[in-house]
Description:
By secondary structure, the protein is of the alpha+beta class. It has helices at 10-21, 25-38, 67-72, 100-106, 156-160, 165-182, 205-213, 262-271, 311-328, 371-379, 382-390, 396-405, 455-473, 493-507, 530-546, 555-567, 577-588, 608-614; strands at 43-49, 55-60, 109-115, 122-128, 131-138, 143-149, 187-192, 195-200, 221-227, 232-238, 250-254, 258-259, 284-289, 295-296, 307-308, 434-437, 441-446, 449-454, 478-488, 510-514, 518-525, 603-607.
Amino acid sequence: MADIIQLLPDHVANQIAAGEVVQRPASVVKELMENAIDAEATAIKLIVKEAGKTLIQVIDNGKGMSATDARLSFERHATSKIRSAEDLFSLHTKGFRGEALASIAAIAHIELKTKQPQDELGTQITIEGSEVSSQEFVVTPEGTSIAVKNLFFNIPARRNFLKSNTVELRHIIDEFHRVSLAHPNIAFIMYHNGSESFNLPESNYRQRVVNIFGGRTNEKLVPVDEETEVLKISGFVGKPEFAKKTKSEQFFFVNHRFIKSPYLNHAINAAFEGLMKDGCHPSYFLNLTVDPKSIDINIHPTKTEIKFEDEHTLYAILRSSVKHSLGQFNIAPVLDFERDTNLDTPYNYKDKNASTPFVEVNRDFNPFSDEKSAKVFSSVSYKKESAPWESLYVGMESKGTRDLKDFSEMEFESDHQTESIFSGDTQSETSQTTYQLHNKYIVSTIKSGMLLIDQHRAHQRVLYESLLKSLTVKEGISQQLLFPFKLEFTATELPILQQLKTDLESTGFVFSKIENDSVEIMGTPINVSENEISNILQQLIADVQQEIPDSHFSATDLLAKSMAKSMAIKNGQSLSKLEQEHLVNSLFACKESAVSPTNRTTFITMSVADMDKKFM
């Protein structure tokens, strides 16, 4: 039998490795920017076109490479970061696997220009699908410029799996944020399709966070600073009242490397326990410094997961540090047994002895000793002065007695009964057929038995179809606000809102001004109060960030679902009989009344026969 095992060609092995390292354009951005940081660059420029599908270029002013190193950097397992296996446990650099450039070169067109400070000329290398097409000396600035063009040009199947430009750009921005937040001492600039998206100068950590997420972020930050033998923590957490619906502002950095850790995230949530609303997530930007020997980074191709030597200790320290910071800055409620400072003795009197208070009394004083005064007191006629108010009660005694004798004739003021809004509805209160159960379900009778409706899901369905009609016809009714309503958003949230502005206006929203970090609203849809505006827009942005619609998804449908979910009555809300009837009738007037917009059951029926079986 012939041998069937054989070595794979290098270009095939590189393409397989590219499947692990390069999942999307954002993966290329991460690898190239980390290489620029390892090259000791102080300024890094990222240029992206068509969300990275056409061009990803990273330019740095680092130490550059020689001609030999430039050529060797595209070979598999070629790296300058480690020399032996022991180096894996004392890492202070980013890319150390030696597969990134080789994997990227296997699936794209690459143009590399690099020059060292001591050299007069630099090196330019052009690669197409792992094959070097040219290498020559060029005049180029110090540092390295690497351009990745036509990603996945030779693997059409992988290119077809990429999402829309909006989705891919969001992932690129996420990676840009992670790298730039980890290194505030480096200046970063990002361009997309020729326009500047971010310009982050060299700064401290607080300024870097504010420069990325907007000026309003500064007032939301609470500093965290703790140092122990095991762990050093520095950074910021967000105040509980500014918690978001998404986890978009949650960043852990271990030794200046972004990581994802559900275990440590649980420690933060435990510190915020009882301070946030349900469904909200705290914001945090925390740098953890640990001994490199106590962690294992090389357990995932993207190096975003880390194995810690003692996770339980880190959990306890992190939870306590965040909780201490929230209490120290009067964010968390604390029990204060200290005395009131207002009761302290003033400095001027602290050395003086207390004197016994006394009251001077003139025992010889007699107000009636003067004849004139006595005459005045004796001549006052109280009856004449009291006559006016006594006259108000003339005849009241007899009237009260008469009313008490005939108690049935008394009339009581009652609420005005609103007539039914349904035509032909002459049912009295005693013949009502709808009841509310635990402020969650509406029970109604039908010919065959009983109907049980989930009021939250049912109202979602009613609002969804109404909003979808307004968005389609573009005739949403708006109610004008007496005073403009202003909301603040971050640099990543504002573009999403601008993208949805036209559709939001179709539902009834009226935007008077959209600035760098704020939005001014002049009108809202009918039945939407000012208190609900912020929650509706935040929930909408959160839904869009989690599942941004691409060419195969309707943005209008997502908008209607999100707004219906925010505006629907919640479980636990008491409804009047009239509101119950109106909700039931509106639900069964819908085209698809059986399920909510998220395809969950809105009502169930139970026949008399089914109920009879329960008593057998």
